[in-house]
């Protein structure tokens, strides 16, 4: 996403890498458009995948823990919260030169599965 690294141990990520990771592990989504989401965050690179999903790639090893936690806990917490939260759809494993696990999430939906217009971050 940017030419200068924010961390010494930061992994290079770009649209091409996201496309290769999708093609290798989630081919059902490989043809969707991929666009970077510009963020002030330094631990993750986020890419919009089509109009309904986002891929979050940790840039550094220490940012990989939330991937597993979110995949495990968000579906369990969602029914008990008064607001809609992102839906974990898949969890990628290292590959294609990218060393970390990563999360793929669906658009935030209203209670009962209806979709709203809140953008994923």
Describe the structure.
The protein is α+β, with helices and mostly antiparallel strands and 121 residues long. It has one domain: Phosphorylase Kinase, domain 1 (2-Layer Sandwich). Helix content is 20%, strand content 22%. It is built from two helices and five strands, in the order H-E-E-E-H-E-E. The chain has helices at 15-25, 65-77; strands at residues 34-37, 44-49, 53-58, 87-92, 102-106. The protein has a five-stranded antiparallel sheet. It is globular and about 40 Å long.
**CATH first level: which class?**
Alpha Beta
Quick check: average pLDDT? 82
Continuous helix count? 2
Give the SSE order as H and E letters.
HEEEHEE
Feature tags:
five-stranded antiparallel sheet; alpha+beta; disordered C terminus; 121 residues; Phosphorylase Kinase, domain 1
SSE arrangement:
Blueprint: H1 15-25, E1 34-37, E2 44-49, E3 53-58, H2 65-77, E4 87-92, E5 102-106
Antiparallel strand pairs: 1-2, 2-3, 3-5, 4-5
Task: Give a quick rundown of the structure.
The protein is an alpha+beta fold and 121 residues long. It contains two helices and five strands, in the order αβββαββ.
């Amino acid at each position: 996403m940017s030419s200068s690294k924010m961390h010494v141990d930061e992994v290079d990520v770009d649209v091409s890498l996201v496309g290769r990771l999708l093609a290798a592990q989630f081919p059902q989504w490989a043809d969707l458009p991929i666009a970077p989401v510009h963020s002030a965050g330094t631990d993750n690179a986020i890419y919009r995948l089509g109009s309904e999903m986002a891929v979050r790639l940790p840039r550094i090893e220490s940012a990989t823990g939330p991937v597993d936690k979110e995949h495990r806990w968000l579906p369990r917490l969602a029914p008990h919260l008064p607001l809609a939260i992102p839906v974990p759809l898949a969890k990628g494993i290292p590959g294609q030169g990218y060393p970390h696990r990563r999360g793929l999430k669906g658009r935030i939906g209203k209670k009962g599965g209806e979709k709203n217009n809140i953008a994923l971050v």
